[in-house]
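Lab notebook, bench 4. Still working through the backlog of constructs that have no structural model yet. Next entry is a single chain of 332 residues. Request: give me the structure tokens for it.
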Amino acid sequence: MATPSAAAKSITFFNHKGGVGKTTLTVNLAFSLAKLGKRILLVDSDPQCNLTSYLVEAEVVDKLLDESETASGATIWSALRPVITSSASPKDITPFERSDGVYLIPGDIRLSEFEIALQQSWIDCLQRKIRGFTETSALSDTASKCAREIDADFILYDIGPNIGPLNRAILLGSDYFIVPAACDHFSTRALKTLGHSVVNWIKDWDIVCKLAPSGIPLLRGQPKYMGYVLQKFRMYGGELTSTAQQFARDLDRRSYSDIVAVLREVSPALAEGTTKEFNLGQIKDFTSLASLAQTQGKPIFEVDGGAPYLKDEAKTAFLKLAEKILLRAEGG
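Model written out:
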């Protein structure tokens, strides 16, 4: 395999409000980017394993979880377990190829144990203990190594809906983050907490880095806000309903005031672009197709069955979103 010319760019899909269609967005975007000629590494970083369950047959998922602590373990927990149990390096694992250009590091319910350990790891970093830095960067290091092995262009992280220590470590190790949002008050209101949480993590990590002993592996600590994606809305007569239009306007306003503005107070480079550019795209509610896609382990636009016109709409929408993300990533 050819040596990659550049490191894969990492993107985390982050909203601590659940039910916004984050996993579905991640899967369909990965397949759309692959259609544009990119190689994608998906990392299931949510202990609920929704991404893995989406793409892998149930019996195979059960086998992966049952064997995750054995010599043949192949989940994200298999890689990380030696780090917290014996202060060893992460175990080498091989990503699963799910389609041409799309690879997966399977999730694991025991990743929650790694998250518990990360609470102490953060304290250890502040106390300049090498183990804290090694543990905090272990997941990002594992993903980067796997990305190099498959010559990936992008690493896409699917994470849980919370602002805990696991998501903090993943965000700080990412190049970009994207906020999926649904048409509801809770989804838009969550942006305020989200923006301030990311800013606080960046500031705290900057302090940690200044304390770090020389030669210690460090996370990038500068995740850039790429933008948001409005999802799960209904259309009427080819247009958003009046309620959806109001949510879209509110989301656009809050994206700027609660994320862009607060990030720019730290560094303008963390949120580059015009207000319009942060609106990455809109994905309407493809409810019937989404259910088929999850059952079949395919992107929405490639399911067997379903209305052809809806699949065409989905393909166009996700490809348009993928193209927008490519432009933003290449510009950054």
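Notes after review: The domain at 9-63+95-104+151-331 is CATH 3.40.50.300 (Rossmann fold). The radius of gyration is 19 Å. Flag for follow-up if needed.
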